[in-house]
Amino acid sequence: MNQNDWITQAGRLQAARKAFALVTVLRAQAPTSAKPGDKALVTADGQIHGWIGGGCAQPAVVKTVRQALADGHPQTIRIAPTDATAERTLGDVLEFGMACHSGGTLELFIDPVLPATQLTVFGDSPVARALVGLAPRVGLRVALVAEGALASDHPDAATVINNDDATRVREQLGSNGYVVVATQGRRDLQGLKAALAMAPGQLWFVASERKAGVLRDSLLAAGEDPDSVARIIAPAGESIGAQTPEEIALSVLAAVVAARRGRTTAQTQVPASSTVSASAPVLAETVAEVPTAGSCCAGKKKDEAAAESAATTTAAATPATPVAIEPASVKKTCCGN
Fold it and tell me: 37-63 pLDDT, tens per residue?
C-alpha cells in the first residue's frame, strides 16, 4: 500500500461530497509498525487509505472516526496495552485498550473532513445573485436553481440547474440542507414547491409577511403538507435594516450562518405563532409585496409603526373632520412594491 494513497483518495471523496477523517499518528511507543507522522484517510464504512499501523488499532480508530463524522469534532485517542474492552477519557484524550497482545502504544489525532454545507438558492433575482456571490465566502457550497439560468452567469455557484421542476431538482440535489427562495415575483409558487420537495432543514422565503401568507395558502390549495408549509420562514433575513439587494442577501446569509452554527434566533426556527390557513386560497405566481422587516424595505418598518401609532393617538383625541386625501404615489422597489 502506498503511504500517500490517502492524498489521491481525499480528492476523490471531496469531489463526490463524501465525508472522511484524516488520522495522523502523533506518538508511537514500540513495538508498533506505525511511526509519528504516518497518516491515513478513514471513511465511516471503515475503509482505510494510507498507513497508521496494523489491524490492532483499527477497531478503535474506526469507532472514533464514526463519532467524529457524526458530531464534527476532532478527537485525540490513545491505544495502550490495557484491558482490550477498556475505554476511558483522560482529559481531552480518549483511551482504548489494545485489541492485540503485541503491546505498544499509539496516540492518534482524528480530524473529520465534512462536505461543505450546501445552500440552494431559487431564483435569478438581484438578491439571489448577490447571495450566490456571498455564500461561498463563508464556506457554503451553492446550488442555484432558476428557469433558464446559465452557468456562465453564476461563476460562484458550484451547481446551476436551469429547470425548477420539483422532481428534477430533488434528483440532482437530494434532500435536506438549507434553502432560500429569492424568486421575487418570478415563478414564486413553483420555486416554493420545488424547495419543499427537497425537505430542507431550513427554508427561507425572501418576501413580505403578506405575500408569504398568500403563497402559503396557494401551496396548501395545491396539496402541499401543512407542517412543511408552516416551516417556511418569511420574511427572510436577520433584522439589520437591509434595503439594497446586497444588504438583503447579507441579512439572509447571516440567518443561514446562525442556523449552521446552532444559534437560536427568529430566523432559525418557526415562530410559535406561525399558522397556516387553508381557506380562501389565492392561486398566483406573483403577489404584490407589502413592506415588512426582512424585505428590501425592512429599515422602514419601525418608522411606519411609529407613524401609525401616532396617527391613531391623534385620531382618538380629535373629532373626525372630513379631509380630502390625494392618491399616494407608488415607488417601485426591488421587492415589487
Answer: 999 999 999 999 998 887 888 889 999
Neighbours of 25 (CB within 10 A): 21
* Cα–Cα separations (whole angstroms), residue 89 to 34, 61, 62, 79, 105: 23, 15, 17, 12, 16
Q: How far is CA 280 from CA 16, 49, 192, 214, 253, in A?
A: 46, 60, 19, 9, 33
**pLDDT tens for residues 179-238?**
999 999 899 999 999 999 999 999 999 999 999 999 999 999 999 999 999 999 999 999
DSSP label at 298? Answer: G
Architecture of domain 118-260: 3-Layer(aba) Sandwich (3.40)
For the chain, the domains span: 5-113, 118-260
Those residues whose C-beta lies under 8 Å from the C-beta of residue 131, and which sit 6 or more positions away, are 119, 121, 142, 180, 182, 249, 252, 253
